[in-house]
Specification:
The chain is of the alpha/beta class. It has 2 domains: 2-178, HUPs (Rossmann fold), CATH 3.40.50.620; 191-280, 2-Layer Sandwich (Pantoate--beta-alanine Ligase, Chain: A,domain 2), CATH 3.30.1300. It contains 10 helices and 9 strands. It has a 6-stranded parallel sheet with strand order 1-4-3-2-5-6, sandwiched between helices. Strands 7-8-9 form a 3-stranded antiparallel sheet, covered by helices on one side. Strand 3 (50-55), helix 3 (75-85) and strand 4 form a beta-alpha-beta unit. The relative contact order is 0.13. Bound molecules: adenosine monophosphate (AMP). Adenosine monophosphate (AMP) binds next to helix 2 and strand 5. The site of adenosine monophosphate (AMP) has 17 residues, from helix 2 and strand 5.
Length: 289
């Protein structure tokens, strides 16, 4: 595995490979890697000639009160994991290289699709977050020239926003969204799980448990969507320090979904102690009227 820090150096190395007809699969991350990240790298290895993983804690996607400075940075351990799964390139640029003097966030959300995708759900509670995400992802796609981009279903709004951006800008890259990897007891893997105390870790389990139960109840048609959602919200609130949202939405548009004929997703964001966790489960379309 080759580690590269300078954007122009990575572009040069990958240009050469692309000239030989090789295709690049790209996995953007913020590091503190776990099995969720590694599953994306394995998929990139399987489906491409070259895999590239970036580790960059992107300041533009954190709000002023968020955990940018304390976000875990464990490059040595991450490199070992990436070697084990067989990534070809690790790209870990400095902040100055990604955002040189005079940088001005260029991308703004406009147009009819954005209000829900980039202003609802997480965006409502993290203003500017997705603008930072699409800015860095667009830059990283330009640097890597990837033909496939690997994202986790765990961040389903992020995947929807990036998918929309790629379509809008006509970028020549295919998005591959891979399933959420969970701990044995159901907790969705997250770099932020390492912030949790033993008690918080125990309470965090309520998130996946509530979402699984909500999915089961929706599939069994055990009540109205509004009623089942309200019950789930109440359950979740008992163990969380704060629930930002729990919603059932159309998996594509992220608009509130009541129709069972479409693929839906139940998703939640909450605080356990000072740690903000998100999770979601896909609810396949059902044929019951
Ligand atoms: P992050 O380092 O948190 O920015 O995540 C980098 C990528 O890994 C994103 O596409 C995430 O959606 C994905 N990811 C994070 N956690 C998981 C998980 N538990 N399962 C699958 N993918 C994940």
């Amino acid at each position: 595995m080759r580690t590269i820090r300078k954007p122009e150096e990575l572009t040069k190395a990958l240009d050469k490979l692309r000239a030989q007809g090789k295709c690049v699969g790209f996995v953007p991350t913020m590091g503190a890697l776990h099995e969720g990240h590694l599953s994306l790298v394995r998929a990139a290895n399987r489906e491409n000639d070259i895999s590239v993983v970036s580790i960059f804690v992107n300041p533009t996607q954190f709000g002023p009160q968020e955990d940018y400075t304390k976000y875990p940075r464990v490059l040595g351990a991450d490199r070992k994991k990436l070697r084990t799964v067989g990534a070809d390139y690790l790209f870990c640029p400095s902040t100055a290289a990604m955002y040189p003097e005079g940088f001005n966030k260029p991308l703004k959300f406009a147009g009819a699709k954005w209000p829900r995708l980039a202003r609802g759900l997480c965006a409502k509670f993290r203003p500017g977050h997705f603008q930072g995400v699409v800015t860095v992802v667009t830059k990283l796609l330009r640097i890597t020239g990837a033909c496939r981009l690997y994202l986790g279903a765990k961040d389903c709004q992020q995947a929807a926003v990036i998918g929309q951006l790629i379509r809008d800008l006509g970028l020549d890259v295919r998005v591959r969204v891979m399933p959420t990897v969970r701990e044995k007891d159901g907790l969705a893997m997250s770099s932020r799980n390492r912030y949790l105390s033993a008690d918080e870790r125990r309470r965090a389990l309520t998130i996946s448990r509530t979402l699984f139960r909500l999915r089961r109840d929706l599939q069994r048609n055990a009540g109205t969507v509004a009623g089942l959602r309200a019950r789930a919200f109440h359950e979740l609130k008992k163990d969380m320090d704060r629930v930002q949202y729990l919603e059932v939405v159309d998996a594509e548009t992220l608009h509130p979904a009541r129709r069972r004929g479409r693929k839906r997703v139940a998703l939640a964001a909450c605080f356990v102690g000072k740690t903000r966790l998100i999770d979601n489960v896909i609810i396949p379309p059902s044929r019951i009227p």
